[in-house]
Write a structure and sequence with these properties.
Radius of gyration: 19 Å
Shape: elongated
Subcellular location: Cell membrane
Structural class: mainly alpha
Strand content: under 5%
Order of helices and strands: HHHHHH
Family: Belongs to the cytochrome b561 family.
CATH superfamily: Transmembrane di-heme cytochromes, Chain C
Protein name: Cytochrome b561
Keywords: Cell membrane, Electron transport, Heme, Iron, Membrane, Metal-binding, Transmembrane, Transmembrane helix, Transport
Largest sheet: none
Membrane topology: Multi-pass membrane protein
Number of strands: 0
């Protein structure tokens, strides 16, 4: 016979999935404001340099986390959604989740291309990634434009994801939010 606690546990994401999810959240939700602020006119140079260093060097960490999350997802499939979630809601959740993965990967890659093609260092990552792309201002400009567009898409997707999590966790209280919470 399966106990209530075992049933509850089987309806949650794995511990690894939860930890990777919340670590990704922390890094993304600090990287976005850093990226938005670092390009503002009139910032003290020391603050601007610090924000640039953080933003461009955390990007590859986020990429690694996304790859790890996908590997963990293959090994430990997500728990089933409660029966109260409609087929349309389930499809929307699946689409938003996969778009989040895709956009995060695209953002990091376009950021790396922008930095390297712009002739700038990626201090932490140069020993591994340095010199992959030669300086090319046209490529840097294109990558920057794509990065800007992808950033806007990411913000919309995050708002949708947080909105759905809040709906399920605070209003419906149907167990969807508790699949990912608490982090450990």
């Amino acid at each position: 016979m399966v106990s209530a606690s075992e049933t509850q546990f089987s309806l949650r994401y794995s511990r690894a999935s939860r930890l990777l999810h919340w670590l990704t959240v922390l890094l993304v939700l600090t990287t976005i404001p850093a990226g938005l602020v670092m390009v503002q006119e009139g910032l003290p140079r020391a603050l601007q340099d610090t924000l640039f260093l953080y933003h461009k060097n955390i990007g590859p960490v986020i990429l690694l986390l996304v790859v790890l999350r996908l590997v963990v997802r293959l090994i430990a499939a997500p728990p089933p959604l409660p029966a109260s979630v409609s087929a349309l809601q389930a499809l929307a959740a699946k689409v938003v989740h996969w778009l989040l993965y895709i956009v995060l990967v695209a953002l990091v890659i376009s950021g790396i291309v922008r930095v390297q093609a712009g002739g700038f260092p990626m201090e932490v990552w140069d020993p591994l990634l340095g010199g992959m792309i030669a300086k090319d201002e046209a490529l840097a400009k294109s990558a920057s434009g794509f990065h800007e567009l992808a950033k806007s898409v990411l913000i919309v997707l995050i708002a949708m994801h947080i909105g759905a999590a809040a709906l399920h966790g605070l209003v419906k209280r149907d167990g969807v939010f508790s699949r990912m919470w608490p982090p450990a």
